[in-house]
Amino acid sequence: MYLTDVKGIKVGHANNQATGLTVIIPPKGTVCAVDVRGGGPGTRETDLLDPKNMVQGVDAIMLTGGSAYGLNAAAGVMKYLEEKNRGVDVGLGIVPIVSGAVIFDLAYKDYKTRPDAEMGYEAAKNASEKENRLGNVGVGLGATVGKILGMESAMKGGLGSYTIKVGQVTISALSVVNSFGDIFEDGKKIAGAINKKTKEFYNPKEILKLMEENKEKYFKGTNTTLSVLATNVKLNKTQAEKVANVAHNGYAMSIFPVHTQYDGDTVFVLSTGQVEADPTLVQALGSICVKNAIISGVKNAKTEEGYLAMEDL
């Protein structure tokens, strides 16, 4: 189950040794909206997606590591799209609309190694309807979770996906899990702040005590979980924005604490408009897709750089 289950959606990845990015290229005419939450967002071209603004969709969405530095990679995505004559016609030529958001993974391996325009071009060029890799790939390479006690007790996060089909309706989510909080499935913690020696999770009382005693140590990092929710259901920008609003329930069902001042949690919604259906269906099932895509992100992650993955527990 992958975002490319929605007909016409293409996904591409690029990595270097320390970080990566993922580019989603939808079909022309796809409507796009966004909902940004949390106190530490890093975004590009998201104001444009407000329903009251002119442009109805995007030519690509970029999810990237490297914190704000990673936004530079969008120049490469734009270059690729311009070569393919994809963008808004402004009379003198075209301007590709590339919206994006970042995760903070600078503490993962190498602070000085970040996604750049060359990687952005590569990811866009690699975009395919057949892409289905998860875990330590693209923007998921440097993702970690459970950083409420700092990087010393964090676990490996990654890229996850989940799809629901009901009749002709397809709804799919792609999420990179890089959260301050822990990850839960059906109320049970499956990844998060852990004692690496005993491979046991810290309990809430221990976490609160350590947080209070070590404020300076534990609150330096920044995090963020990013999701792209795509559907073939026809939505206008206002309806798509409402779907993005409700999709954040998927974060609340799988991450705790969530939407903190140390996260920049963001959900993009893409509507390819191939099927007529009630937007409420997309709202409800979309939040489930996002929840399970987040869980998929930690289930598909692999141990790397000393960060344990869920599969090792």
Describe this entry's structure for a reader:
By secondary structure, this protein is an alpha+beta fold. The chain contains seven helices and 19 strands. The strands form six sheets. It has a five-stranded mixed sheet with strand order 1-2-5-8-4. Strand 6 and strand 7 (94-95) form a beta hairpin. Helix 1 (74-83) crosses helix 2 and helix 5 (237-247) crosses helix 7. The longest helix has 21 residues, at 279-299. It is globular, with a radius of gyration of 18 Å. The two termini are 24 Å apart. The model has no long low-confidence stretch (mean pLDDT 94). This is L-aminopeptidase/D-esterase-like protein. It comes from Peptoniphilus koenoeneniae. Belongs to the peptidase S58 family. InterPro entries: ArgJ-like_dom_sf, Peptidase_S58_DmpA. Pfam families: Peptidase_S58.
Helices and strands, with pairings:
Elements: E1 10-15, E2 20-25, E3 31-36, E4 43-44, E5 60-64, H1 74-83, E6 88-89, E7 94-95, E8 98-102, H2 117-126, E9 144-145, E10 155-156, E11 159-166, E12 169-176, E13 182-185, E14 188-191, E15 194-195, E16 200-201, H3 204-213, H4 215-218, E17 226-233, H5 237-247, H6 249-254, E18 255-256, E19 266-275, H7 279-299
Parallel strand pairs: 5-8, 17-19
Antiparallel strand pairs: 1-2, 2-5, 3-19, 4-8, 6-7, 9-10, 11-12, 12-17, 13-14, 13-18, 15-16
Helix pairs in contact: 1-2, 5-7
